[in-house]
Specification:
Number of helices: 21
Family: In the N-terminal section; belongs to the glycosyltransferase 51 family.
Keywords: Carboxypeptidase, Cell shape, Cell wall biogenesis/degradation, Glycosyltransferase, Hydrolase, Membrane, Multifunctional enzyme, Peptidoglycan synthesis, Protease, Transferase, Transmembrane, Transmembrane helix
Pfam families: Transgly, Transpeptidase
CATH class of one domain: Mainly Alpha
GO biological process, one term: proteolysis
Shape: globular
Largest sheet: 5 strands, mixed
Organism: Streptomyces kasugaensis
CATH topology of one domain: Penicillin binding protein transpeptidase fold
Helix content: 25-40%
Structural class: alpha+beta
């Protein structure tokens, strides 16, 4: 027996041999059953999940999603129709809290699908959902694509099918929340299973909003074409389908400046019908855009109220305070910036100085339209606005439309840009109020010693000879500012205009080159008021506002920040003001002196006297007034010769008189303040003003020597005797000899093409702009 307690077998001799335990895994990397074992993850690889973990997570996610979809489908029922037809009114208040207007009355008349022409139904499908009859109620791919496009800045898109849109319109609301979108998703799926496509399309046509307070296809047909929906043509149906994408923006009667966009969308609808084989190519080729009739104002929005409500709504939607659908649902209490006293004063001034002088016996008087806007320069608040004689009679707001040339009230922007950029004449002379230019009629402008092909006429083809910039502004001499615009550079002039408040996409602002200096662009009255308010505020600018406060259900809605910035330097703004004071004191705007306060301003008249402007300001208030010519039936722009019994209408007449009456009333009771100006170097007033004599800079005299007549950075001073002016103008480049057509096409307005601008077709283009066009003032 062994004495080793751990050994009960035969006695072992020699050293002990250690080896693997019988149940230990093999040392060759294989498992006990002969399989290759997985190496243990080490280092950074331990930070990442295995494919088994990923697969498990994906499977769990899919199970959760599937479970959520099933739960949503089971839990969300098709509700009763919403209360859109009982939409609340929005209440609009003056700045003092008194009521301005209410809206919210819903105009709807339901019709059966059989009453809607087949091609009109197809036009709606081509615009909104071409696969409606073959697709499911929801399109997840389109929803994801729309969300991605929205996030990446390619435009806000819904990605909704017609079924989803109908659910939103008829069963839910317009709020932009995830809860509403989720309900819309499940209700659409259920509705598609329980209701026919025929009934869904009928409901969609009856519940959609088309603008002009028209809900449903029948109300839209009446609002835009004055007929029942069963009488709509294919072209008219395609236009109504176009409105579904942007009801307010695509109403070309309310927004003529958007006509090209609306027509492009209309083309898209009809081309879609051709692509779906709902319309033949031959039928498509014969169709012309069906211009809608004039709009009728909703009840309660007659007079100025409708213009103000529409402008306020546009401000809220354009600044993304609230979207159009949500605003239309109602319930908002909106305090505007409109001062009731000043609003009444502006209306009274237009009536007494213009409207009371019109006569039914003169055809031209039926063309007269007016627009006005007034801004407090310090706060940027719009305190008054005149849109037209009555929103129920003239639907387009004369203060916000962007389709009339501003003429010579653009010239101060050119001069301000010259001072801001330290610009010089072609001879290197710094441009100041005292710099002398050649004011000869139809004088060829020069760039780097070469003619540009741009030689605009002065008003009444009058020549002035050498004049200072101040005198050129007083007399509104086109020849002076045409050359100055080229000296500064059209691109710099445009940049200054945008900085001062003119939208960068304003028609003709970008492409008119040299002609930009003479006001071929078409910003609105409100846009130009922002510009002149910036001059009044010494170059500081606070973006204008029409709204002080918005609330709904007792909760305030956040308004956009409007931080004050520097649009141009104080010396540029104040030097411009010093020049514009001369226009009021002894230039074309002496009628503005009737305001009884220190004032600065500029008159302007568009080509062919189709519009007359006055833009003026005191230290406390900036106001722009325009008198516009428009045919009451065709909406074509018309000259105003003979309006009000006067031979012609210019900015120094009715507009300046209206401005003076309004400004006196609006500031009554406030002490008169003088301007506190800090002028640029060299801008001090000269002791004597050349009148038809002086030494024009080389840019004005078109000297071929290239030798500066005055050292750079100094101002040309008048000599004791008149100089010898050049006897011949530089040769001009070849130019077409035929005159362009002068007839105005019906419904045509100078609007911007996508990616560029166009100039009204009565002009002939050169590399620098228009040639031979006669702008007045």
């Amino acid at each position: 027996m062994s004495h080793d307690p751990q050994h009960d077998g035969p006695e072992r001799t020699g050293s002990r041999k250690w080896g693997p335990r019988p149940d230990a895994p093999p040392t060759d990397g294989r498992s006990a059953k002969g399989r290759k074992s997985r190496p243990r993850r080490t280092g950074w690889r331990r930070l990442f999940p295995t494919w088994r973990m990923l697969f498990g997570a994906l499977l769990l996610f899919l199970l959760v999603v599937a479970g959520g979809l099933i739960a949503g489908y089971l839990l969300v029922n098709i509700p009763a129709a919403n209360t859109a037809a009982k939409a609340q009114s929005n209440v609009y208040l003056y700045s003092d809290g008194s009521e301005l207007a209410r809206d919210g009355d819903v105009n709807r008349e339901n019709v059966s699908l059989a009453q809607v022409p087949k091609t009109v139904q197809q036009a709606v499908l081509a615009a909104e959902d071409r696969d409606f009859y073959s697709e499911s109620a929801v399109d997840p791919a389109a929803m994801v694509r729309a969300a991605w496009n929205t996030v990446t800045g390619k435009g806000k898109q819904s990605g909704s099918t017609i079924t989803q849109q109908y659910v939103k319109n008829y069963y839910l609301g317009q709020e932009q929340t995830l809860t509403r979108k989720a309900k819309e998703f499940f209700i659409a799926i259920k509705l598609d299973r329980e209701v026919s496509k025929h009934d869904i399309l009928e409901g969609y046509l009856n519940s959609s909003y088309y603008g002009r307070n028209a809900y449903g296809i029948q109300a839209a047909a009446q609002a835009y074409y004055g007929k029942n929906c069963d009488q709509l043509t294919t072209a008219q149906g395609a236009y109504l389908a176009t409105l579904l994408n942007a009801p307010s923006a695509y109403d070309v009667a309310a927004h003529p400046e958007n006509k090209q966009r609306a027509v492009a969308r209309w083309d898209y609808v009809l081309d879609g019908m051709v692509k779906q084989k709902w319309l033949s190519e031959s039928q498509r080729s014969t169709m012309t855009f069906p211009a809608p009739g004039p709009a009728r104002a909703p009840t309660g929005l007659s007079g100025q109220r409708g213009y103000l409500v529409k402008a306020v709504n546009d401000y809220l939607t354009d600044n993304k305070v609230v979207d159009e659908d949500t605003l239309r649902a109602g319930g908002y209490r909106i305090t505007t910036t409109i001062d009731r006293k000043r609003q009444d004063a502006l209306v009274a001034a237009v009536d007494s100085r213009l409207m009371d002088k019109l006569s039914d016996a003169r055809t031209v008087d039926s063309y007269v339209r007016a627009g006005g806007a007034s801004i407090d320069p310090a706060s940027g608040k719009v305190v008054a606005m005149y849109g037209g004689i009555d929103y129920a009679k003239q639907y387009v707001n004369g203060a916000t439309r962007r389709d009339y040339q501003v003429g010579s009230i653009f010239k101060p922007i050119v001069f301000a840009s010259a001072v801001q950029n330290g610009s010089t004449t072609q001879d290197g002379v710094r441009i100041t109020p005292n710099t002398v230019y050649d004011g000869t009629n139809k004088r060829m402008t020069v760039s780097n010693g070469s003619p540009t092909g741009f030689d605009p006429a002065n008003e009444d083809d009058r020549s002035y000879g050498p004049v200072t910039v101040s005198a050129g502004m007083d007399k509104s001499i086109n020849a002076v500012f045409a050359q100055m615009g080229i000296d500064v550079g059209p691109a710099k002039v445009k940049n200054t205009a945008v900085d001062l408040g003119i939208p960068k996409d304003t028609p003709s602002l970008g492409s008119s080159q040299g002609a930009i200096s003479l006001g071929t662009a078409t910003p609105s009255v409100l846009d130009m008021t922002q510009v002149y308010a910036t001059f009044a505020n010494h170059g500081k600018q606070r973006p204008y506002s029409l709204v002080d406060k918005v609330s709904r259900l007792g909760e305030d809605v956040q308004l956009p920040d409007r931080p004050e910035g520097i649009a141009i330097g104080r010396d540029a703004a104040d030097t411009t003001t010093s020049v514009l004071r001369g226009v009021v004191e002894g230039g074309t705007a002496t009628a503005a002196q009737a305001a009884g306060r220190p004032a600065a301003g500029k008159t302007g008249t568009a080509e062919k006297d189709k519009a007359a402007w006055f833009a003026g300001y005191t230290p406390d208030l900036a106001t722009v007034v325009a008198v516009l010519g428009q045919h009451p039936q065709t909406a074509a722009q018309e000259p105003l010769y003979g309006a009000g019994g006067q031979d012609r209408v210019n900015g120094g007449g009715y507009p300046a008189e209206i401005w003076a009456d309004y400004t006196a009333a609006a500031l009554r009771g406030q002490p008169a303040r003088d301007f506190d100006l800090q002028l640029a170097s060299g801008a001090e007033q000269q002791s004597s003003e050349p009148s038809g004599t002086g030494t024009p800079s080389a840019s004005a005299s078109a000297s071929s020597s290239g030798t500066p007549s005055t050292p750079p950075g100094t101002t040309a001073t008048p000599p004791t005797e008149a100089p010898t002016l050049p006897t011949a103008e530089p040769s001009t480049p070849p130019f077409p000899t035929e005159q362009p057509p002068t007839a105005e096409p019906t419904e045509e307005f100078p609007t911007a093409e996508p990616g560029g601008d166009t100039v009204p077709q009565t002009y002939r283009m050169s590399p620098w702009g228009v040639r031979g066009a006669a702008w007045d003032e």
